[in-house]
Request: fold
Amino acid sequence: MKHFTNLGKAVAAGALAVAMSTAAMAADGLNFPNLTYRTGPFAGTGTPIMNGQRDYMLMLNERDGGIGGVPIDYIECETGYNTNKGVECYEKTKGEALVTQPWSTGITLQVMPRTNVDRIPILAPGYGFSPMSDGDTFAWAFNPPVSYWDGAYMILDYIAGGDMSSLKGKKIVLLHLDHPFGKEPIPLLEKLAEMHDFKLVPIPVGLKEMQNQSAQWLQIRRERPDNVVMWGWGAMNAGAITEAVKTRYPMENFIGIWWSGSDADLQNVGAKAKGYKSVSFNAPGNFPVLEDIRKHVVSKGNSEIKSEADMDTIFYQRGIIISMILAEAAKTAQDNFGEKNINAEQLRWGLENLDITAARLEELGMKGMTPPLKMACDNHTGHSGAWMLEWNGEEFVQASDLLTPNRELIKPLELEKAADYAKNNAPWPGRGDLACN
Amino acid sequence: MFYRTSGQFKTTYESDQALFPIKQDMVLLVVILAAMYVIFPMFASEFTYKALLVPVLIYSLASLGLNILTGYAGQLSLGTAGFMGVGAYACYKITTIFPEMNIIVALFLSGFFSAAVGVAFGLPSLRIKGFYLAIATLASQFFLVWLFEKWAWLYNYNASGAIEVRTMDIFGLVVTGPNASPMVQYYFVLGIVSVVTFAMINLTRGRYGRTWKAVRDMDIAAELVGINLMRAKLSAFAVSSYIVGIAGALMVFFWKGAAEPNLFDIPMSFQIVFIAIIGGLGSVMGNFLGAILIVALPVVLNLLPEMLGLSIGSATMEHVNVMVVGSLIIMFLIVEPHGLARFWALIREKLIIWPFPH
Reply:
């Protein structure tokens, strides 16, 4: 009975216990938390990437004893893509964290101002938002290896066959999620449409109608576009591809961004989706690094993948690339500072001065898996380029040489939007006291 | 024994009408307030503020707003998150148009915008009731989220499509933005929640509260005894949306720091309805108990395995969490269908007559 009268005290005791437990979470090694989404409505997209990320880190621990001899403490904190959980996970992991990987535009936006104060680099590979490339504004944020604006440019470049002026008079539909992520390419595409005199028709898909896009595809049929470019994600991809098959849209004219290129989305329709394309910063194949992961992680039963065939999917291999970028940044920092147990600020330096050469990729067993990547103080993305992949009815195959973005065109837009962001979040610290080299 | 009321004589009308006529209730309240204002801040870590204390307070406030409408005035609403969004966007626009304005003023002003929108969407309540009204408020929910997406002026044509909070201070003390200390933000939220809660306890005991309850219990009878139904229902919508709007603004400015339109989508509306129902409709205290169960418990459960030294995958824990919280909700509703506030009232009654069974 006393329990109830002292309700307040009980609550206080509970909170105390919580406060103490979070203080006692310290562990040895390089602390790399990942805010995963293996549950919730987008688990289908998230799980294969998270598996790839995790397995590469576990493989480094097994094979090399970590990075530079220091084991990696790879921690997952589940958000289910929920921004409330994102706050919780960020606060829970940040104490010891060397990096934060927020994995959602919403969580990234919430966390980004805090990372300047907490001095933790934020790694948002292939997502985040394009102006993050401006390292002088976003000193702690990195979105290698290519940004969405790069992706939009490369897709159009591919459609135009390398000559943008050939787009004149064409009609291109942008089928996008009606959400900040989906609207991201619009400023650049509008600019390109004006420059090269083609017609851009953005068709939004609401979050609630991701799985039922009959209205959007009816509009596409009416518009008769030369190409459909898709900025989709989660359930929207499968919905769009199914609907395209149903309305007999010519698949070879349908191109998605890298998050719209998951094997799982296409396997349902199989051969009917033959010709569908997706731009990607990782190419499929059987690389030596996969053998190492199979040997050190998967065959020992330490992986979370359901079957070994999952290792051949684009998203799993993309997860490997993402972890590789982080591991290489840690190694760069270790080499530069001559210290094995680096701190978050040193890792930030490592990311900023990351240079993954073709030779290094070969050493890592990833030759041809992703383009060489080099970042700099004013280039927190790297803009290393991507390949066009094509669905051959059974799997994705590489369908183009390396595409690269036109930096002269995109960079001014990035600087402009970065300045806007700094103004909205005034006073924005910018680079502050961080030395460039 | 602990709650012996014998010997507490009321000799004046004032003492009989006091907010807490029983001395032990007063003591309990003082203990809770002391815990909130003094003891927690002495021990709480940044994580405790950001993941437990502040969200519980903000969700309690939102649920309190909904409870005024649904619990006291009997008007079912599924549009709470939309009205929170109106408050948040209004506060964002006010603070960007008038950067010099004190955030407290902006906060209380933004409530008026959500109140106005709430009254507008409350108009159908004059003709429809129950489930039909729920559908009308659901429509407001869809419409408002759509508006937040489409009306770029609302987010200042921001490239990210989200609203972001800049650093603001009150008399030199930084209260919003990344540089604000979580403790300062906690005290700020706590202060506002305390003030609004105190006002609502009094309001619901007074003329308006009684009018609302009369409308809730039987609107025809209420009309026959001379209650103006239109005024009663619309005032409930106004007060409710005002509080909900403030809760929305607090959520973005003092907790999250940035928000996308779909934050204010229907899942949050449902979450707040759950808090109100599990806490207890028609009670003030229930909102806090409900928020502790729905908002804080999952966070604490997530920490459990680590405290016990077990290693369970974070995703697995999330699944377990959903199951545990779900079954707890069902259990509480079976044990006491009227919510946690009623549960506490029963315990309190038992304690008063303890050790005698009747």
Q: What stands out?
A: Chain B touches chain A through 63 residues (CB under 8 Å). Chain B has one domain: 18-353.
